[in-house]
Amino acid sequence: MRVAVIGGGPGGLYAAVLLKRLDPAREITVWERNAPDDTFGFGVVLSDETLGGIEHADPEVYRALQAEFVRWDDIDIVHRGRTLTSGGHGFAALGRRRLLAVLHRRCRDLGVDLRFRTEAPPAAELARTHDLVIAADGVHSATRTARADAFRPQLTTHRCRYIWLAADFALDAFRFEIAETEHGVVQLHAYPFAGPSPAPRHPGAPPSGTAEGTLGASTVIVEMREEVWRAAGLDRCDERESAEWCAKVFTDALRGRSLRSNNSSWTAFRTVVNDRWSHGNTVLLGDAAHTAHFSIGSGTKLAVEDALALAACLQEQPDTARALAAYEEERRPVVASTQRAARASLAWFEELATYLGQPAHQFAFNLLTRSRRVTHDNLRLRDPGFVAAVEHEAGTPSGTPPMFTPFRLGELTLRNRVVVSPMDMYSAADGDGTPGDFHLVHLGARALGGAGLVMTEMVCVSPEGRITPGCTGLYAPEHETAWRRVTDFVHTSAPGTAIGVQLGHSGRKGSTRLMWEGIDQPLQDGNWPLVAPSALPYRAGVNQIPHALSADGLHTVREQFVRAAQSAARAGFDLLELHCAHGYLLSGFLSPLTNHRTDAYGGDLTGRLRFPLEVFDAVRAVWPAGRPMTVRISATDWADGGTTADDAVAIARAFAEHGADAIDVSTGQVVPDERPDYGRSYQTPFADRIRNTLGVPVIAVGALSSWDDVNSLVLAGRADLCALARPHLYDPHWTLHAAAEQGYAGPGAVWPLPYQAGSRTPPTGRTDAPKPRLTLR
């Protein structure tokens, strides 16, 4: 088997090592256009997981790397002159030159042909003369560019500029430092990669002083928003001037020392995603296939793990085609998860200025949990003292998880931060919009389950405003009576739990079948006419074309919302939410993809906001003053030309200025060709940005599945309330069980008297078996 490797970075070299070691008969050539000791960057971080894979696959490489590693446990966070330290993190790093030297030596020992200072022939040419071509040619991959039609890359350039530099001494912790300059916020990411491992130290202790000749080296990355970079004049600075500027800003962190560069330049990070990683016998590896922002330290890690997986699949599969398919199938979910974490971390640093006003410990906790991979519970295991200090600063009572602290909306105090999210049930009896026994049991059970707030499904304000014949309403006297039965049960049988109603109108997404009969599919018969901001069907050729609302139609809809709100107040609901999300009628006005009007209710965002705000104002005027009112929005359409995150902030600001007590921040479902970035808590960054930009309370939603997620979001100040849907379908008593699992019993999670005997986790098997009295070795 003849193998060509394009690119002599860690991923390409390690792939060559593994393939040659597994089959010495393979003829493997690595092309690298630079000299052996040329490298652009300084230190490389690898996780224990990656090192374990290397140890298993090639103990010799592992031993060589192990001898080079600098290890440390602490992270220092410096913010407004105060240093906070969190321990227990377990990093390992070494110089990139040393990593490459180890791999070069191993390649030569195994007989890999290394060709330095040699440009590789094009991948298409190599593919004709080799059995396998591994394109490890980096973020600017020529291979990927040449066959963009096959790999279908999506390249996203982000909003910060950064530069890689080095300091000639070893820091004794990973260091994040924030500098507030006259031009804007600048951040430093720095860690040791050469020299003796830093000695363990107590949180807050000063760096150890050793002789300068033995201090080793540290990677120093300086990053800032593009507009800050330009305002500081760094776009006009050369390499030396840039290094001097950075050293001056972070003189305390560097102990007055200078910074050195190595062909260092200011760069905007680029996220690379490919629809396919292989074409014929050519396969992408490492940054050519995918990138992850440096703030989570996974670039080299991903490339090395790619090499491990590729070598294993080639060994396990009967031919190259199936091996490349298996490689992509194995690695794609792992990479996608890492890229989601990296994007969350990247976005956090892009919006860093919005967090500067947070208390010191909350800011540090927010930074540490920014990627959502480190959580409240995980960090408590690593450094319980640090988490206790964060909770103390936040005023969290001792022994109380953050999710079980109260929160006040208007005159309503919620006993905890858990919300049962609105979920359409499509179960109204006889198709007339009346809630029945199902709704009493469904909502009653979740109220008994301990959540602070239970929300109804979207309750429709008119018959033609229904999504399906099974949707509930508040447009007839019998609806009000039926809902009163539900609210009375909640207030009587689950005292302390609030119940809210979500009012909405389906707009162009109405007159469809029940979800399990075909979601968003039109009824086979009995359809009713639809209205919308513009005459645009949800799916062209599938859903009916709605009528664009006239002035009279706008007045009618507004009055329908008012009457429904008055009815909801009489029915005893504690909170009202106006549904302006998910492509329903009011959401349709907000998105430029669904609002093509040319009158005062269309055009720019001010025009598109006009009708939703008119409805809000009219509802707010009749809704009891002491009861809170919230608004659910779609913070992005996940589609080109649609609502953006910046628009979402402006929309939230407008509703807050009109009296909304909180913004319920969801995303998408506005157009059928959306491309959501699914993943755990994937929608929360939008809520986070609104909360910390505007200071308005937010409800976070979107794939929140664990009490650890809720604790993390609340304590970090990214959300005030967390709405969970599917977890409450799986377990109506999710909140009470979360309390039991955390060993909490207090006012934030009150078990109903008939259920108190079940307030402890049942044993799953015998746990009192006698222990062995004697062990023989």
Automatic annotation (TrEMBL):
Positions of region (Disordered): 755-777
Record Pfam families: FAD_binding_3, Oxidored_FMN
Listed Gene3D superfamilies: 3.30.9.20, Aldolase class I, FAD/NAD(P)-binding domain
Residues in NADH:flavin oxidoreductase/NADH oxidase N-terminal domain copies: 403-739
SUPFAM superfamilies reported for this sequence: FAD/NAD(P)-binding domain, FMN-linked oxidoreductases
Residue ranges of domain FAD-binding in the record: 2-339
InterPro entries, per database record: Aldolase_TIM, FAD-bd, FAD/NAD-bd_sf, OxRdtase_FMN_N, YqjM-like
Domain of life: Bacteria
Name assigned to this protein: Bifunctional salicylyl-CoA 5-hydroxylase/oxidoreductase
Species name: Streptomyces mooreae
